[in-house]
Amino acid sequence: MQTAHSDSVFPTEVYERIIDYFGQAFDVPFLRACALVSRSWYPRARFHLLRSIQLHSKTDVLSFTQMVRRGRGPMGLTNVAGMVERMMVRGTEPNATPVEDVKKETAEDVPRVRMRRSLVHLGTCAAMLAGRAKLNNLTYLGIADGEWRDMHRNVGSHLSAAFPKVRRVDLFNVKFRSTADFGRFLCAFNSLVHIGFWVNPRGQGALQGGPRTQFNPDVFMHTNARRALQNLRKLTLNGQKSTRELGEYFLATGVAEQLDELWIGYYERVPLAEVAPLISAATSLLGLDITVESIVGSQGTATPKEVVLDLAPNTQLRILMLRLQPSNLYWLHELLQRVSAKTIQGITIILDVRRPLLEDTTNMRDMLQQSVSLQLCTSIDELFCSFEEQPDSADTPAASSEPAVEERNLPKEESTRRARPPKYRYGALRIVQLALWVRKETVQSVHGSEEWTALMRARFPLLRARNMLMTAVVLEDSTDFLHEK
User: Is residue 134 situated within a structural domain?
Assistant: First the structure.
């Protein structure tokens, strides 16, 4: 990195904007390098280093808490506690080998060696900040690669006092001994709005412990705890571990009924049968993003009894995003029929062709042609462009083959104007997007953007005529399909 001299081509403000960009992404190595470039770069880089804190060990905790308690940081910074907005805590293991010291050929074994690491230093941090040094501006807490054990019995009270304004918590491959321990942890955040679970495919589940027992929320939930969960509106579930236990927890505590947004299986498909009760209970759900392999319980022609995922109870649903493998999608029409016709505004169907299944020997283009067959596309096209059923004339008391007297006396133009035009069944629907998710190396072997657009426009003529059809071919590393960009 070049030193910024006083005669630099660009003013200092330009460099500060670049530092701001990387400061949004927890890029600690980059920020530390910027802080060592020059005196003009140091304040901005140090600001972001304090704004986004990472704690890996008890030593980090002691250094950070002492700085917060003093109220002063380097370069004369004051009100350090008020500058901290995000915190990432990682588990530690005293005898673990650092990733940098592991040879490349043995790097695959590192996650298994370092997986079960204690998070006790998070409890220490909360206890030291629970008094006058609490972080009132901390809104995000991320916890990664650790196990919730060896905690103080009052750790929940310490977390609540030290981090009173946390609105979002993300758990990356974090293990709890029991559902009750997880519940106590969750209820410590009175302002929590969004909780996310990100489980590595090779990692541990979020809830793993002794023999599985029926979850009883009354064991640990008191009045204040129930009040704390009333603000929870967004839930993210990723990975195939512990989805059943998590679903039961949010059902038993009543959180499912108040959810507005639900993301399931972004990185890895989740067993649908384990989360279907959670989705059905979320009657106030506004947005659903789900990655599934099949939404029916058996092969063959989909019938209402076979469909595992039923969106009929989600009467407020506005946005639906389905991520699917290119396979036999005969059940898709049955699923879309159950979507709330009065409220749905946007539907996105993403065919994930980044990593074909090993048993698939069919050409990818042929597989896509079979998945989005003309029969399936026509049925979906007609479904979204269908009209509401008009009331039967026989049920109308004043029904008559002759027009009313006052209507016969009106001019022809006025009589025609009085006739009600038919209404679309999906009156609120604005966008239906069909997308391909591909890898850069295989994009040419699947479909290019123009070719995919032409194919979809030919198979959805009614949606195209209503200017509601959208298509896209997105590369794997794109952020177009991320929850939050």
Answer: no
471: in domain: yes
As for how many domains the chain has, the answer is 2
Q: Find all residues with CB under 8 Å of 237, minimum gap 6, and list them.
A: 197, 243, 246, 262, 263, 264, 265, 270, 275
The answer to whether 330 and 302 are in contact (CB under 8 A) is yes
Tens-place pLDDT, residues 209-228: 443 444 455 544 545 556 66
Sheet containing 194-198: give its strands across.
Answer: 52-55, 86-90, 140-148, 168-176, 194-198, 234-238, 261-264, 287-292, 319-324, 346-352, 431-438, 469-475
Token pair 């460099």 is at which residue? Answer: 15
Q: What is the pLDDT of residue 258?
A: 94
What's the pTM value of the predicted model, to 2 decimals? 0.78
For residue 365, being part of any structural domain is answered with yes
Q: Report the C-alpha gap between 454 and 460 in whole angstroms.
A: 10
Flag whether 41 is in a domain: yes
Quick count: other Cβ atoms within 10 Å of Cβ 198? 20
Compute the average pLDDT of residues 392-407: 50
Q: How remote is the C-alpha of 431 from its chain's centroid? A: 20
The two most distant CA atoms of the chain are separated, in Å, by: 95
Q: Which residues span the domain enclosing 28?
A: 16-50
